[in-house]
Amino acid sequence: MMPAFGRRRFRDLSEQEILALAISSEEDDARIYRQYAERLRAEFPSSAAVFDGMAAEEDGHRQRLIDLHRKRFGEVIPLIRREHVAGYYARRPVWLVENLPIERIREEAEAMERQAEQFYLNAASRMQDAETRKLLGDLAAAEAGHEQRADELIREHLSDETRDEEGRASHRQFVLTWVQPGLAGLMDGSVSTLAPIFATAFATQNTWTTFLVGLAASVGAGISMGFTEAASDDGELSGRGSPLKRGIASGVMTALGGLGHALPYLIPHFWTATIIATIVVFVELWAIAWIQKRYMQTPFLRAAFQVVLGGALVFAAGVLIGSG
Questions:
Q1: What pLDDT, in 10s, does the model give residues 35-66?
Q2: Does pTM top 0.70 for this prediction?
Q3: Which of 168, 189, 295, 315 lies 20 to 30 angstroms, CA to CA, from 306?
C-alpha cells in the first residue's frame, strides 16, 4: 500500500529494498563529498583532500553492500532512494551548503555521518527479523566508522597550522565577498537617504508622502548600488568573489539602510514617526561603526566619530532644507 504522495513507509520495505536504499544512500553521500572537494580544491586543497578521502570511504562501503546484495538477492538492485521513503533522513541540496564557510561545510559533513548512523540504529531497534537487525546494525557501525575515519583524515591532512590558515582565508573571503559590499551598501542607504526623507518630512508634515519618498529612495538606491557593485569587478583579479553575491549584499543592505528610517513614517502621527525614525538613524549609524570595528579592525571611536558625524551632517541638512 502506498501512503500519501506515493512514498513508501520504512516498515513496509523488504530486506532487499533496505539494502538497496543503503547502496543508493552511499552513492549519494560519495557524490556530495566529491562536490565539496571540488568546491574547496582551489582555495583549501588540504580540506579537499579530506573530502576526497571520505568519498573513497563511502565508495568502499557501497561496494561491500553491493557484494552483499549480489550474494543474497542477485545482480538486479531495486531502484529506491531517500526521496522514495517517508521519514527517511534527507540531505540538503549541495547548492545550499557549498557556499557556506569551510567550517560549516565540515560541520555539515559530520552531521551527515551522525544522521545516517542514528537512522540505522533506530531502524535496527524496530526490526524483529534477526538477520535484518544485524544488517542494519552493521550499517550503523559502518557509519560510525566513517566518522572515525573522517577524524583520521582530518588529522592526516589538516595540521593545526593548516586549519588556522584555511580559517583565516575563509574569513578573509567572507569579508571581501559579503561584509565589504554589504557595509558599503548599508552606509550608502543609511546616510544618502537621510536628506530626502527628512527634507520631505519637514517640508510636507505628511507621513504617507514621506514614507513613499523614503521607499522610492531606498529601493532605487538598492537597485543602483547592487548593479554597480556587480558590474564594477568580476572578482577574478581582485579575489573579491562572485559579483552576483557582492551585488546582492550591496543592494539588499542599501535598501535596508534606507527603509529603516522610512518605515516609521507608516505611523500617521508626524512627531511620533519622526522621533522613532531619528532613533532608528542613530541605531543604524552605531551598527555601522560596530561592523567596521568587528570586521575591518577600525578603532570603534574613530569609526563612530566618522559615521555619526557624517550622518548627523546629512540629517541636519535634510531637516534644514525641509524646514526652509
A1: 888 878 877 787 788 888 888 888 887 888 89
A2: no
A3: 168
